[in-house]
Amino acid sequence: MSARREEILKELGLWPVWRLRSGAGASPQEEGAAAPSNAAPASAPSPPAKAPALQEVPLPLDDRRAAIARMDWRELKAAVASCTACPLHKGRTKTVFGVGDEQADWLFVGEGPGADEDRQGEPFVGQAGKLLDNMLAAIGLKRGENVYIANVIKCRPPGNRNPEPFEAGQCEPYLHRQIDLIRPRLIVALGKVAVQNLLARDASIASLRGRLHQYRDIPLIVTYHPAYLLRNLPDKAKAWVDLCFAVDAMKRLQSGENFPISS
Ligand code: URA
User: For the domain 61-255, what is the CATH code?
Assistant: First the structure.
């Protein structure tokens, strides 16, 4: 592999993803090694060349994190679209990168794609998405207009189960880079998986609502996930309170007012 190609793949966090399994299938000529002493005489018919066996070797997480943290939007989208860093890539139809205004004040973060999102490649397009769109409309917001919507996980977990810690860990640098690039004024974490990832806390949503938290230096509000609200209708009233709180916080943040951040 040329040094330039290797450099580009490293920059994209995609190297060394594919390597020859040691000793498997590679011909001595390819590897530049000396011919083995028991090589067949030149006149003997040579066996058909075997395709080199490839094995996935993900970059260590710290190296991936560092590579992803330097990406621009184009590189980040390409890296997510071709990501094979966890087993979820095997079952996906499409990756679900995120959608909206890349300079939005508002960032809503969900968990991961369901069946509809996996088919369409866009977050929150199923039943939970309809509810999220209605929640946005209720506070005068619209998908794509000063709003960005993303998930912690970019590939659908089978049967819509929660992501495993390894899967979330591999995917998390993408979301964190999205946040760095967007620099939203306010993040709304939708449900437990978003909270676990962005606040590194395992507390209940009920115990975290109604206060302003912080992801790095960005204010963050916690509320229920729309899919949870579809199953627990009485809690919609609480989500409405959270949205009103978010609107109030945004007004204060836009006017440069100080806002107490909870620890
Ligand atoms: N639930 C999520 O958390 N995200 C989606 O994109 C869809 C459903």
Answer: 3.40.470.10
